[in-house]
Structures are given as structure tokens and as C-alpha cells.
Amino acid sequence: MLYMALILNNLGYMVLIADRSRRRELADILTCELTQEGLVTYRNLDFYMAADRREEENFVRQHQYSYVFDYVNEPEGDVIADVTKAGYDGIIINTSCLRSELRVSREIVMRAGVKVLVVIRDMPENIPKLKYIEKYYMNNVGICSLYAVPPDICDKEYQYKMDYEGIRSYRAMSSGYSCVLSKCICEISGRDDKSVKRALRYLKEGKIFDNRLLE
After folding, report:
1. Are 29 and 81 in contact (CB under 8 A)?
2. Dihedral, CA atoms, 139, 113, 7, 145, nearest 10 degrees?
3. For residues 5-16, b (16+ Cβ closer than 10 Å) or e, as one string?
4. Cα separation of the two ends of the chain
5. For 170-180, how does the pLDDT look when each residue is reduced to its tens digit (9 = 90+)?
6. 136 with 106: CB under 8 angstroms?
7. For residue 15, which of 8, 23, 127, 130 sits 20 to 30 Å off, Cα-Cα?
């Protein structure tokens, strides 16, 4: 999600990320202190840490963001119900190909009522049963798009580095991941492939353009 938000930022959009994970996982990458509103701007993205969704909605109404991402982890039970009834324009699911995670993500897809974009990460090609995943998702489910990213050591290294060192450059990002990100952003934004790939290239070079709402 962070990659997508950064690419949208480089396309000139105002982006807010609301961390609604139980353990406030996104706070680990931030090097700035929160404001009294529970807000921080880091690398030109606005992060909102308030736990109450109603407070978040009030905040969003007071500002003119192009895109608002709610980051939700551990989607089980009441959280699934909350996500599927939240009135989102769309849902992006980032999952592994483990059966336990696929079952949870498919439940969200079935209950969503909006377009859903599913990205399956680290999906190997030498497990025969994995070819049935697309059929598993598409069977009587209104899924929008399904993308698979092959495993890559550099992509995984960047994931951990982001957690410990924050947002840097990603010059060695795999072609598979780059391709999926480009397609996802084209689908989300409606922008042309050339513009999206240029914004992605800037991201990989560590260039993040300033579209901040906050000073």
C-alpha cells in the first residue's frame, strides 16, 4: 500500500494513509512526531493514527485528499464486518498464497459489495495447485482484479528495510513487482501507463514529490 500511495503522490495526488491496524504498524516507519490530531507527514504522505473511525471521517471531510487509504491488518471477525460495511470506493487486499490468508481475503471479497483488487505476494510457480487460485477467487465472487507477484529477495529486503529504516529508494525492485504496481495504479487512478511508469521510476530512484497538505 505504501508503494501505491507514493506513486499516486508522484502523479500529483494528495494522499492520506490512516493506520487502523491494532498495533499501529505503520508508526514504525515514521521518524516524525504526531500532532495533537494524531497526524504526521512523512515523505510527503500524511499519516493519520487516530483509532476512532468517526474522527477519521470528520478529519477527511475537512481536507481535500484525492485518495484515502485505511490500513487494516489481521482482518478477522468484527474487523471484516467493519471493513466490508465502511462504505469504501474499493478494497485492496495484499495477501500471501497461504490457504489461511486466502480464506480470509476471499471472505472479504464475498462480502465487500465494491470492487476489490487482490495482490498475492511471493507466489511461486512450481506448486501445481496454485493455478486454481484464480478460479477459487472468481467463482461467484465480484472481484475486480487479481495479480500475483513472484518471490524476489530484493523485494523482501526492501520490505524489511522500510520497517527499520523508513522510505528510501528501490532501484532493485523486481520487474514482476514493478509491473503489478503499474497495473494497479492504472486501474485505481485511470491514468495512462506511461505516466504511471514514470511516477514509479521516480519512486524507485527515491524521488518523492511534495504534495503535502500540512506544513
Report:
1. no
2. 20
3. bbbbbbbebbbb
4. 23
5. 999 999 999 99
6. yes
7. 23
